[in-house]
Amino acid sequence: MNDEIKSVKNHIFGIKRKFNFYEESKKVSIFCDYDSVMGINKLLKGLGIEVDIKYKFIGHKENNTMEKLLKDQKSLMISSIDKDNNPAISYAPFVMIGEKIYVYLSKAANHYYNLRDNKKCSVMIIEDESKAQTIFARARLSFDCEAKILEAVNESVFNKFDEVHDPKMMAMFKKMDFDMFEFDIMHGRLVKGFGQAFDIKFVDGEIQSKQVTGIGHRN
After folding, report:
1. What does the pLDDT read at residue 79?
2. Measured distance CA(33)–CA(51) in Å, rounded
3. pTM above threshold 0.85
4. Which residues of the chain form beta strands (DSSP E)?
5. Is the pLDDT of residue 176 over 50?
6. Which stretch of DSSP H or E encloses residue 13?
7. Looking at residue 21, what is its pLDDT?
8. Angle CA(158)–CA(159)–CA(161) in degrees, nearest 5?
9. CA 39 – CA 41 distance, rounded (Å)
């Protein structure tokens, strides 16, 4: 078996950095992009190698869906917890800069105090009903986050709001009882449609994903 495993390793030496061969076995885990995973999976199965874990960087197909949602949707839904530990749902316009989400919230809104007093929340950005192929499988992107009020707001955040939203409205809100919240993303999930769910996370500034298999999607 050792000679057989060594032979396989030699044949794929060009991409061996993406593989983790288990000692004295014919099992391997893969870590690379979507297209490579699917192609290599078939190759290895043909060689009698068992692929028991398939990790992958988020590929262009998933990345395009995520980028489209973030570009087309100007607001997100916020799930928060009130002072009595009851769930609350609301929405707010948002911008995303790097790995952070920003929302500008009024002190008149219940979710302002929910997020101030309990930093844990979830957000969802979902495809417009009118553009979905089926209402039962709208594309959506959800994140589990930790929220905090910014005491000082970088001007780049306000500039991004002016770019994405109505600058006249933002100028008016700045004169009112509004505060900027920053959502630190813990992890997330992208759902493209039926059977197409991907757990996503940010690692060293890059988006990575792992396809969800064998269980139902949570959002």
Report:
1. 97
2. 15
3. no
4. 19-21, 27-33, 50-57, 75-81, 87-93, 95-97, 100-106, 120-126, 140-149, 178-193, 196-203, 206-211
5. yes
6. none
7. 53
8. 65
9. 5
